[in-house]
Write a structure and sequence with these properties.
It is built from seven helices and no strands. The chain has 137 residues and is mostly helical.
């Protein structure tokens, strides 16, 4: 590929961190933000539900009983619902660590955009509450 083509497509400035300037382009290609950089709320909602359900299943696989699942979820959900968006996102990340799971890569890329992280973590916690209250058991 010619250097001019690489420069024009932005391929020479690949983001290695969700906090790099070029990470916005990666999030745009994922469909998380519009061309103008505004969050795509529908995409974020779907993604938050998918990953909340996946986390719920991973937690069920990790725990010995449904009582253990509830014991893990209740304090997290209660704290997350009261937390500021940044803290809520960090609490969510800690839940993955607690069950020895890596943070899903799209979620890692979301972490570099506070507006996306706030929307995502709110949807994640909301859907996880529905699952914990019987919708997923």
């Amino acid at each position: 590929m010619k250097t001019d083509t690489i420069k024009n497509t932005g391929l020479c400035r690949r983001a290695f961190s969700p906090f790099d300037d070029s990470a916005t382009e990666r999030r745009r290609r994922m469909g998380l933000v519009s061309e103008t950089g505004e969050p795509d709320q529908n995409s974020i909602e779907v993604l938050s539900h998918v990953f909340a359900a996946q986390y719920f299943d991973d937690l069920c696989d990790f725990c010995q009983s449904i009582d253990d699942v509830q014991a893990a979820l209740t304090p997290f959900i209660d704290a997350a619902e009261k937390a500021e968006p940044k803290q809520r996102f960090l609490l969510m990340c800690l839940q993955y660590d607690a069950i020895y799971r890596a943070l899903p890569e799209p979620v890692w890329w979301i972490s570099g955009a506070p507006d996306l992280a706030a929307l995502f973590s709110a949807g994640f916690v909301s859907h996880l509450r529905r699952l914990a209250e019987g919708g997923g058991i």
